[in-house]
């Protein structure tokens, strides 16, 4: 049988994505736990710390849509608002 030639390589266009893929394919549990701990320690974005009151049912749904990805306290507030507004 003939050997298959190695795949061509190139420098990544997006270094952040290349690093992310390297981390995903890593089997080092200690490294993955350190990364997870670091991500948990990150603060929420500034809009998540907003104390602005919700201005109605539709506004609460807009807030939930904006914060659903990371489920911050602002999302919980909007969720409770919608439950109380329309049980």
Which key terms come to mind for this protein?
mainly alpha, 54% helix, 4 helices, 87 residues, elongated
Protein topology:
Layout: H1 15-24, H2 29-41, H3 57-67, H4 73-85
What radius of gyration results from the CA coordinates?
22 Å
By DSSP, the count of extended strands is: 0
The number of helices is: 4
End-to-end separation in angstroms reads 70 Å
Enumerate the spans where pLDDT stays under 50 for 5 or more consecutive residues.
none
Shape: elongated
Helix content: 40-55%
Main β-sheet, in a few words? Answer: none
> What string gives the helices and strands in order?
HHHH
Q: Structural class of the secondary elements?
A: mainly alpha
Q: What is the residue-mean pLDDT, rounded to a whole number?
A: 82
Question: How much of the residues is beta strand, in percent?
Answer: under 5%
Describe the overall structure.
- The chain is mainly α.
- It is built from four helices and no strands.
- Helix 3 (about 55-65) runs antiparallel to helix 4 (about 75-85).
- The longest helix has 13 residues, at about 30-40.
- The radius of gyration is 22 Å and the shape is elongated.
- The protein starts with 14 loop residues before the first helix and ends with a helix.
